[in-house]
Amino acid sequence: MKRTIVKMPGDGIGKVVLEETIRVLNAAGFEADYVKGDIGWKFWCSEGNPLPQRTLDLLEKHKVGLFGAITSKPKDEAFEELSPELKEKGLVYSSPIVGLRQHFGLDICLRPCKTYKGNPLNFIRRGPGGTIEEPEVDVAIFRQNTEGLYGGVEWSNPPTEVYNALMTHPKFRKNFGHAPKEEISVSTRIFTKNATERILRAAFEHAKKYSYKTVTVCEKPNVIRETSGMMYKMAQQIQKADYPDIELWNTNIDAQMMWLTKNPENYGVIVAGNMFGDIVSDGFAGLIGGLGFASSAQVNPETGIGVFEPTHGSAPKYADYPTSIVNPIAMVESACMMLDFIDEQDIAKKIRKAVAEVVAEGKVRTYDMAKLSGNPDVIGKGAVSTQEMANAIIEKL
Ligand code: NAI
Ligand code: MG
Which value, to the nearest 10 degrees, does the dihedral of the CA atoms of residues 147, 148, 152, 156 take? Predict the structure, then answer.
């Protein structure tokens, strides 16, 4: 049966990388119909909703979505750009991608970071005697995607009942009790046992399935005792009961960022809450080529709903170039994760091999790989366009 994929190009370069990726999927023999899901800034401005109900309905029906990127802007600017007839309606902008995650409970986010041989952007470091080492990174980062610091439970000048509740905590009274209520902003970091267990189990399962030797909880349990502490304690229990052959490591997010450049090759699966997962995945992505290579999957294994997207945003600066210069590989890789999710691993493998060959050969490089600063004239300086990179991948296929 032919699949239907909901394609959500969104804004800016999201539109370009998604179309090029669909060309690659077609060339690889993936047979699917694509329906377009409206999402992004345009729909905020014209309808007051960047994530219209019709898009949610499409995803509910077809389950699997490919997402490009969206543009978000601060509250005031969002209001400014709202269509005049909507300005009186008291609408408040919120990110549609965060909305998608929460609406469908896409709480498992996987961001793999694996070195491509021959990528000029690979991290290198000095070894003994001044030698140059290029460590091979192969980590899979599991980020809890719906809770924690990005859960959206926050206030400036909190309501009285919230303030009073906070005042019952001795540390709040001591450290913040002197500040006027109006001058206090609070962003909460809430973890639930259920969601924490789901992300931990997803991480351990992945380690088992792909033979990673370690799972590292990357939080800060010594300081953030309740949330990080709960996650680490649960990880210990799960490892002991169900995954005795996988080693459990425990790192602090700050130290982990320092160790990134010291021993990135030592890590396997990494698991963290929402914000630390976001941070540590960008850190590792920097070692394997940066935003042009960073892909992600966000899934709800129970409903079978998944949205696959590059980690990068809409890069507005490059959105209107007559010839697009951005790297489509992050989006192509995200599509490969979609293929894995819907049991089309053979096609995913073929595409990954084609991308690896193009990168290793080194003849075709987008501006980021060519280490040029992003300008329209990079094409004349030896970089290829987004489309030419997709063509090169298709040629290998
Ligand atoms: P960004 O990821 O859009 O761009 C940052 C820089 O990274 C770009 O200027 C470019 O130099 C580079 N870059 C990004 N994608 C690239 C690619 N495929 N190939 C080569 N280079 C690439 O992040 P920025 O500038 O912070 O945000 C721009 C807009 O995107 C904002 O409105 C932001 O809210 C939104 N955004 C959306 C995300 C999403 O849709 N999931 C994620 C991050 C940002
Ligand atoms: Mg991020």
Answer: 160
Question: What residue owns the CA closest to ligand 1's atom 44?
Answer: 313
330 lines ligand 1 (CB under 6 A): yes
CATH 3.40.1350 fits 123-149+192-287, yes or no: no
DSSP, collapsed to helix, strand or coil, labels residue 297 as strand
Q: Ligand 1: does its nearest atom lie under 6 Å from the Cβ of 333?
A: no
What fold, for 1-104+314-397? Isopropylmalate Dehydrogenase (3.40.718)
**pLDDT tens digits, residue range 20-30?**
999 999 999 99
**Where in the chain do CATH 3.40.50 domains reside?**
123-149+192-287
DSSP helix/strand/coil, 247: strand
Comma-separated ranges of CATH 3.40.718.10 domains in the chain = 1-104+314-397
Cα 105 from Cα 195, distance rounded (Å): 10
Q: Rounded to 10 degrees, what is the CA torsion of 261, 284, 370, 348?
A: 140
Distance of CA 274 from the midpoint of ligand 2 (Å): 10
**How many other β-carbons are positioned within 10 Å of the β-carbon of residue 68?**
27
Separation of alpha carbons 141 and 159, rounded Å:
37
Pocket test for ligand 1, best of 109, 275, 295, 312 (most atoms within 8 A of CB): 312
What digits encode the pLDDT tens for the residues 141-172?
999 999 999 988 999 999 999 999 999 999 99
Task: Write the pLDDT tens digit of every residue in 181-214.
Answer: 999 999 999 999 999 999 999 999 999 999 999 9
Nearest to 66 by CA among 272, 283, 332: 332
Asked whether 6 lines ligand 1 (CB < 6 A), one says no
User: What separation in Å is there between the alpha carbon of 388 and the centre of ligand 1?
Assistant: 21
> Is residue 378 lining ligand 1, measured as CB closer than 6 Å?
no
CA 58 to ligand 1 centroid distance, Å? 26
The encoded tokens of residue 179 equal 């500040």
